[in-house]
Every structure is written in structure tokens, then in C-alpha cells.
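Review form for a predicted model. The reviewer records the input and the model, then writes brief findings.
Reviewer: anonymous (R2)
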Amino acid sequence: MKIALIGATGFVGAPVLDEALARGHTVVALVRDPAKLAPRAGLEAVKVDAYDTASVAAAVTGVDAVISAFNPGWNDPEIAPKFTLGAKAIDDGVSASGVKRLLVVGGAGSLFVAPGVQLVDTPEFPAFIRAAASAARDLHSDYVAGRAGAGLDWTFLSPPAGFGPHDPNAGAARTGTYRVGGDEVLFAGGAPATVSRADLAAAILDEIEAPKHVRRRFTVAAV
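Model under review:
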């Protein structure tokens, strides 16, 4: 397959790039600075403004699927509005390109911890990422309501609640195994579950190769 990957140098996107190339796919990496990606067989790095619909559309035209691991950066004070702006440009750009398949990596904040209660609204949720998580929740709501993803075979992936740069398990070796959930937070021994970056990447590529969650959200966690 020919896959476009947005965010190929990021925390989630980098292992997705490794996984896709290891499986023999051709990857078009949409990045701000192509020089940050070393040349590799099967990789084409394209300079793209992720906030510009036309730029995204031109870069993804002709691919079989698009994976968006877009994130403006956790240290950016404008991360929430920038996430919303970029997510819309990516969605509109993919739609304009004629490509049908889009997998969006969102956050865990929109997962439910109890009926009617999402993780982002709990008192324990870190305040410094609440705005960004709320923006990702809004994006998921837009997909579910049909305000985004018009004409697309979209999938929204929420990483597990324990996943992130702070998680010592994120760097664990790839096992190729994981468990799958839907709209609820997955737990492990009473604590929010996590998963390695490599196994999250495997789950993403598995969904691209054999879709099971078209126009739905799913989450994954370590076995």
C-alpha cells in the first residue's frame, strides 16, 4: 500500500513510520522539515503545511490511506486551537484529494470512565493538557456527528489512558499483541492501561491493512 503519514517525526508517528516501512509499505511522510527524516527505502518526505487544506490535498493525492498523528506539540501554549485548525485542514484536505481512508490518532480524554463521564472531565485529569484533550474530544464528536469526515472511511484511535511520554512502558519492545476496546477506558490491575509505542503502531497498521473500525473509534492496550 501507499500510505500518507502526518506527524512522522512525532512520539506516535515515528514508530508508525518504522512499522509501515517494515511491512513493505510505501510511505509519503508529510512533515514541516523533510531534512529531519533520513532517507530510507520506501520513504518519500514531503514538506507540507498541515494547517493548509490545499497543501495537504496535494500531498496525499494518489495514496491508498492516510494516517494522521498530527500534534502541534505539547509545549505549545496554543496547542488546543492549533490542533483544531490542523485537524480540520487535514480532514478537508483528505476529502478534497479523493482518498477515502483516514485514520486519526486522537487522545484518551474522550474515553468514558463511567456512563456519561469522560476521562477529560474527571478531577484527576491533568489540568495542563485538559484544553488539548478537549479539542481532541471535540474532533471525535465531529466525526461521530458527521460534521467531519464527510465521504471518508474514517477511524478514530484513542491511545490508552496511561500512554504518553511520561510512561516508562512506552519504550518497551514490540510484541505485536494488544487488546482492543471501544469507547471506554481500558484498565490493568485497577490502573489505567498503557501500551508501548511500537505495539500502538502495530495496531494502527493492522487497522489500515484490515479495517475493523470504519466510521468508529477504538482503543488498544497491552495484553
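Findings: The longest strand covers residues 26-31.
Further findings: The chain has one domain: 2-221.
Recommendation: see findings above.
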